[in-house]
Amino acid sequence: MENEESYQEHIERTEMDSFIKKEDTPIPPISGLDLSLSTKWKRNHLTAKKAIIHAGYKCEFDNNHLFFQSSVTELNYVEAHHLIPMEYQGQFKWSQDVEANIISLCPLCHKTVHHAPIETIEPILKNLYHLRKARLQKCGINIDFNKFLTYY
After folding, report:
1. H/E element holding 31?
2. Which of 48, 60, 70, 94 could cross-link 80 (Cys pair, CB 3.0–4.6 Å)?
3. Over the stretch 57-113, which tens digit does the pLDDT of each residue have?
4. What span, in angstroms and rounded, lies between the C-alpha atoms of 59 and 71?
5. Residue 2: which of 39, 50, 37, 41 has the closest Cα?
């Protein structure tokens, strides 16, 4: 069983060429048991790693958030966050486990979007939503901001 911490560690320990191509195309969702989410939708750590590489190991909400260097990568430590949470995959035809839906966040921003009150996270989510809306549409994921906000 893979929890959130081990998922993030798996991403961090994955080695990958930093010159990978950004891919924003619709793909079918992958079903199967993913106990870390208690759902039937799987997450691919390679997709998350690509998203982090494309973000340059920076927090996509505020690229000045440089809290510490990872002992594994020796780069700024960030975590992968599914902007549209995977638990809502059943509401979409195309996979949400795509680079366009994975945001690189510093640990503070990541914890904030998961645990802070909606009035605290709404400005963060609004920024990230507008940052990714066009890329999500390229992947067949169309959602308006008000619906998106209900997922949090």
Report:
1. strand 31-34
2. 48
3. 999 999 999 999 999 999 999 999 999 999 999 999 999 999 999 999 999 999 999
4. 18
5. 37
SS3 at position 145: helix
Helix/strand/coil (H/E/C) assignment for every residue in 97-144: CCHHHEEEECHHHHHHHHHCCHHHHHHHHHHHHHHHHHHHHHCCCCCC
pLDDT in the model for residue 13:
77
**Helix (H/G/I), strand (E/B), else coil: 81:** strand
User: Average of pLDDT values for 105-124?
Assistant: 97
Give first-to-last CA distance, the chain, whole Å. Answer: 24
Using one digit for the tens of pLDDT, what is the confidence trace for 59-69? 999 999 999 99
What's the CA gap between 124 and 120, in Å, rounded?
8
Q: Parallel, antiparallel, or unpaired for β 39-41 and 31-34?
A: antiparallel
